[in-house]
């Protein structure tokens, strides 16, 4: 007897459909030499110095937290290429919607370090974007910033500007309804927004395979008929190239796109978290020896004759001076007052004490 | 025949909402209307009738279902310079968007120290009494009144529906605008022509009286009016306040009236526990304690889930229940 069954299409092809795209491997070798000419030595040095600055700042924040000079802090070490590479793809009039772990992106896009420190010190001034920049305050409720980016992108198109929105989110965020609602809205409205996912393997303690059965986040794009790509998130060149292409496509009316940047969080979720409870940190350490996003750029810069110990020291000296100035700015902020509580709750507060 | 001033027009409450929306979209090309079925269909209650034909699909937008997504998008639109007016089809369906409203719309101004703001209006039909299906009849205004950063308006007349909606549009902060669906077509009245906003935060004195202050809003105002007429027949002179806005709340109007009458009955459709009526009782204690001749009474919906339609007449406050409370405070 002939076996009959309805023609289901099987799942499970995400990795085949969205292979990991990288331009520079862990040894600092181009995977496709044609791309090498697209990146000038100046650009590579700039990208590297942004990453170095981001890493130095992150470590300073961890130490400030341990000294009790700022509050609970969410480190991003390991994700510098993903954040710097993507933020460098934006133009000055574009929007950036960060989460609490995306201050490397925000600082690359122009957010002053002092203001980022004020945020982690629990001060409202930390949510003020730098003059002329459209940076939302970091979103804490997971995935809620994605619809905001869709709305801002809608507004830019409505007002006939060339500006686009770039929104950051992690792997855990893809389980939230707002992720799906935002992708659907963006797809239906065809607005200029780029969804930039950093898949760092963990949502606090929950690994990706408990978050989703699918092997990739990029494949979610298919459900909304969006272009999607999965890139090596520790390869600043691939991250930049993919984001730049998506941003310029959106800018020219091509609509939204989804980028999955596969990366790794070397440290804890926050300073209140101990990752040893849920993962083998030696595994993380081994991974970083190979995959550290800064190392492969150093190797390329070395070959270009733009990097050595002396250059690195020179750059770090400048970075450290900037960070120390930011710390001084944070610590010299005037004390908070009760009136601050009421300021800006409404345009005109009905409840402020007389 | 000509007249310099356009005459008042008689219209329904939903017609007044519709007129306000037409005026807003006509006046401000950055104003847009979005929600489920608001475009081609003109809204399930026809509140957005004619807008799509007149202003086009770019400004009158049928959204996908997904209240969190489109309310969240409206927050982004507002921060980027548009003036979105969002329709939630029924208040009972707003809950997926609750996080966007309380965690973002209400806080973006303070979180960015005024650099971004969210001048949106979220309209929602609310309340029971029209034999609607399950979950279509909630009256959970207290959730939003409780949340700093939001304003909440609840009209009870066509004139206020139009005027308060114009004021909500003009307001630089997010306004939850609750439309009593049982009054959509049953409330008819004169509506001033043209751009005639009614300021947020001011109660309306529906009738003056000497003996007892009855305080109501939205769909409970006609119930309280009928109770007041019944009380008058029994020789009790009711002063009736329609609050119109629940945040900001017109504390002075409440205090002034209770100072005069010494008695208060608050009527709300919502559940009793931690409803707005309880807060009004607290205000009366703060502002008019020594003027009171009797403890204030609340007439509320019961502390049960808003029931299926077969029970809704049992659930809702009625003129008889309000009158009973009025008699009680008069005896007190």
From TrEMBL, chain A:
Any idea where the Dehydrogenase E1 component domain is? 49-333
According to the UniProt entry, what is the EC number of this protein? Answer: 1.2.4.1
Instruction: Provide one Gene Ontology biological process annotation.
Output: branched-chain amino acid catabolic process
* Family matches, as SUPFAM superfamilies: Thiamin diphosphate-binding fold (THDP-binding)
Q: Which UniProt keywords apply?
A: Oxidoreductase, Pyruvate, Thiamine pyrophosphate
Which GO terms fall under molecular function for this chain's record? pyruvate dehydrogenase (acetyl-transferring) activity
User: What domain of life?
Assistant: Bacteria
* Reaction(s) the record says it catalyses: N(6)-[(R)-lipoyl]-L-lysyl-[protein] + pyruvate + H(+) = N(6)-[(R)-S(8)-acetyldihydrolipoyl]-L-lysyl-[protein] + CO2
How is the quaternary structure described? Heterodimer of an alpha and a beta chain.
Protein name in the entry: Pyruvate dehydrogenase E1 component subunit alpha
Species of provenance: Hydrogenibacillus schlegelii (Bacillus schlegelii)
Automatic annotation (TrEMBL), chain B:
Q: Which cofactor does it need?
A: thiamine diphosphate
Looking up Pfam families in the UniProt record yields:
Transket_pyr, Transketolase_C
- The answer to whether the entry has keyword rRNA-binding is no
| Record's keyword annotation contains Nucleotidyltransferase | no
Q: Which molecular function GO terms apply here?
A: oxidoreductase activity
Q: Which residues form the Transketolase-like pyrimidine-binding domain?
A: 11-186
Keywords tagged on the record: Oxidoreductase, Thiamine pyrophosphate
Q: What is this protein called?
A: 2-oxoisovalerate dehydrogenase
- Give the species: Hydrogenibacillus schlegelii
